[in-house]
Amino acid sequence: MAKLGPCGLLHHAAPMAPNLKLQKPPRTSPLLKTKHVALSSSCASAAPTSTISVLQADEEGSGGFDFKQYMASKAAAVNKALNHALPLRHPEQLHESMRYSLLAGGKRVRPVLALAACELVGGDEAAAAPVACAVEMIHAMSLVHDDLPCMDDDALRRGRPANHVAFGVSTALLAGDALLALAFEHVARGYACAGGGVPAERALRAVAELANAVGAEGLAGGQVVDLTSEGAPIDLTTLEYIHVHKTARLLEAAAVCGAIVGGGTDEEVESIRRFARSIGLLFQVVDDVLDVTRTSEQLGKTAGKDITADKATYPKLMGIDGARAYAAELVARAEAELGQFDAGRAAPLRHLARFIAYRQS
């Protein structure tokens, strides 16, 4: 297996696919009805069950794929590459703030998506290394900015003080800006030192894909609609718009960029886009359920803040059972998109979809 290095590649994908339409949840949802580890309404008081063990039990007979080991090895490689990409240097306060959020840990779902999607279409992991790191830098920026007093005003992130609490609002704001700039610099330098491993056309497509995911048609657009919707009655269509753009879009871009730099066909790239869009929404549905069923200590961030801010959420609009059913539908949609690919290569993404569905935090 290739190791992630300081260089990486990007590639722009086709324009965003039409928004997924929210449908009335099915009367029964076998997947989450029988395995509701992370979505149970009683889980706030119950001792957490290992998500990994549930997934491993669910995948008996799947060829012995070790999802826990796969995630651990990919996350370790990503962490090493991120540490190398952002050394502590002058001005130290700014770089300490950047490293504080970028190297804070987390599941590394987005970079793993990029790596797995690249491998799914037959590409080498090294080709997706730069975009994998870049998407995590963008994600870290979004968390720093999201926690600011002018946004969600959250003092806790990943079990410790938010960046602006630790370093001050001004430094946190600049650290987020610097992380965003570093993401694109890392991609450009990564392709420049790749020795021609990824064609320039793919790299440019990836750059455009990432930029679109961050701007008015992505994170920024979703955040604005989210902020302006606080306290106002909104429907499921508006809620979907917020989360397709604020949450799902970056997950989608990670997978799409991985597929592009890996040399996927247009058909393969768009199938992976639809897969990632489904798990991006799934991530938010589960997040909304956990927000009302888990404690701050269990989540590593402030629980119940959506209720306090009077935000619309999937459990609020659909009920917890309805949200669980919709999550099951999204898992099924995501897995269906993997049917055209080699089963062995698709195993990481199939397991990742279920990991997101049954996660505990």
UniProtKB/TrEMBL annotation:
NCBIfam families in alphabetical order: FPPsyn
Protein family: Belongs to the FPP/GGPP synthase family.
Single biological process term from Gene Ontology: isoprenoid biosynthetic process
Keyword Transferase listed: yes
Pathway: Isoprenoid biosynthesis
One Pfam family, short name: polyprenyl_synt
Cofactor: Mg(2+)
Entry keyword set: Isoprene biosynthesis, Magnesium, Metal-binding, Transferase
Xref: InterPro entries: Isoprenoid_synthase_dom_sf, Polyprenyl_synt, Polyprenyl_synt_CS, Prenyl_diphosphate_synthase
Designated name of the protein: Geranylgeranyl diphosphate synthase
Gene Ontology cellular component terms for the protein in this record: cytoplasm
GO molecular function: metal ion binding; prenyltransferase activity
Top-level taxonomy: Eukaryota, Viridiplantae, Streptophyta, Embryophyta, Tracheophyta
